[in-house]
Design brief:
The protein is α/β, with parallel strands linked by helices. The protein contains five helices and eleven strands, in the order ααβαββββαββαββββ. The strands form three sheets. It has a five-stranded parallel β-sheet, with helices on both faces. The protein has a four-stranded mixed β-sheet with strand order 7-4-5-8. It has a two-stranded antiparallel ribbon with strand order 9-10. Strand 9 and strand 10 form a beta hairpin. The longest helix has 14 residues. It starts with 14 loop residues before the first helix and ends with a strand.
């Protein structure tokens, strides 16, 4: 070992250690603040409006589509008929085999249709809550995305949805409020820029 080299863990601190030390010193000088407590929701849910109706209103206003089905059998039948117009599909991990359409399977980056199992839906934001464990590729890379979610899992506020899921949280949750869209260029709205250009929420009552 040369005279100028130092073994790991000795000598001058690393840039990372110096940065963390500065953060520690800065935080030590800050006054302690009380926890703000529970939050009621970003957009208070209108009284008397059922969460399902609230979700449909917000989701469709953002460009999403909603199909309501009576039970699993009806959802399976609708999905089978809908998928006939697509050459291939990509399925999320949580989609039950008996619900999956009988179509050729492909990777999400080449499939024409993606089908995912939603964890929940939120009325106040019109958002579908998608679990990263179900497969983010099928949620983000396909041009058309179908999300299956039970009506009992539609919540009035984000707070209620997260509290309901807190016993089983993944590393990441995705909030999908309609199709991907952007108006960055010339303030012209374009769909499908950063993800699916068409998103359909299939609400299952049974």
């Amino acid at each position: 070992m040369s005279a100028g080299s130092r073994p790991p863990g000795t000598g001058e601190s690393t840039a990372r250690e110096r940065m963390l030390e500065r953060i520690h010193v800065a935080n030590a000088a800050r006054a302690a603040t009380e926890h703000p407590g529970d939050f009621g929701g970003w957009r208070p849910h209108p009284p008397g409006v059922h969460p399902v109706a609230g979700f449909i209103a917000m989701f469709t206003a953002a460009g999403g589509e909603v199909v309501q089905t009576a039970d699993d059998a009806a959802a399976t039948a609708w999905l089978s008929g809908f998928a006939e117009d697509f050459a291939s599909i990509s399925l999320g991990v949580g989609v039950p085999p008996e619900v999956a359409p009988d179509r050729p399977r492909e990777r999400a980056d080449t499939a024409a249709l993606g089908v995912s199992a939603g964890r929940a839906a939120i009325a106040e934001t019109g958002s579908l809550v998608l679990d990263a464990r179900d497969g983010r590729r099928a949620q983000l890379l396909v041009p058309v995305h179908v999300v299956l979610v039970r009506e009992k899992d539609v919540h009035a506020t984000a707070r209620e949805a997260f509290l309901h899921m807190r016993a089983d949280l993944p590393a990441a949750l995705g909030l999908h409020s309609g199709p991907s869209k952007s108006a960055d260029i010339g303030q012209v709205m374009v769909k499908g820029v950063h993800g699916p250009g068409r998103v359909i929420a299939v609400l299952i009552r049974g």
